[in-house]
Design brief:
The protein has about 150 residues and is of the alpha+beta class. The chain has helices at about 40-60, 80-85, 130-140, and strands at about 1-5, 15-25, 25-35, 65-70, 90-95, 105-115, 120-125. The protein contains 3 helices and 7 strands, in the order βββαβαβββα. Strands 1-2-3-7-6-5-4 form a 7-stranded antiparallel β-sheet. The protein is globular and about 45 Å long. The model has no long low-confidence stretch (mean pLDDT about 90).
């Protein structure tokens, strides 16, 4: 598998860069898009909400949709929003499983990818039907290198 980092000239207004994954046998099997890094909860929630709305318009309601943090988490409050995701207490994720089409994604996911305790990207990922098999095959073929 090969991956390419792409920063297009004509960007989506909410997304900054893309990583495109290509398999020699299958072809394009995954695209990851990231937003600019954000420092505040309101920024992350605004971008997440806008993208979620666009994806819901395209693919219907998500099949899985999480926005939760345990009541006993030490990472409560906006000042700890990114830390709560970084340390695994908070889930802010949505997943769609679109109807299969010849060139369409088998899964679309939206989430937050922390960089550190004070900044994070909004992450959008499109995956083809064979993605798990491609990754598994790649991991098996590279096991001898480890």
């Amino acid at each position: 598998a090969t991956s390419y980092f792409v920063v297009p000239n004509n960007q989506h207004p909410l997304l900054f860069a893309y990583v495109v994954f290509i398999d020699n046998e299958y072809g394009l099997f995954k695209i990851r898009a990231i937003s600019q890094p954000y420092l505040e909860e309101y920024q992350i929630r605004a971008v997440f909400g806008d993208l979620k709305s666009q994806l819901t318009t395209a693919y219907g309601e998500p099949v899985m949709d999480w926005d939760s943090i345990p009541a006993d988490s030490e990472w409560q409050g906006s000042e700890n929003f990114i830390s709560s995701i970084l340390y695994g207490d908070r889930l802010l994720t949505a997943i769609w499983l679109p109807e299969p089409t010849e060139n369409g994604p088998a899964m679309v996911s939206l989430g937050v990818l922390p960089i550190n305790e004070s900044s994070a990207f909004v992450l959008l990922e499109y995956s083809a039907e064979n993605t798990d098999k491609i990754i598994e095959r790649y991991n098996e073929s590279n096991a001898a290198i480890l």
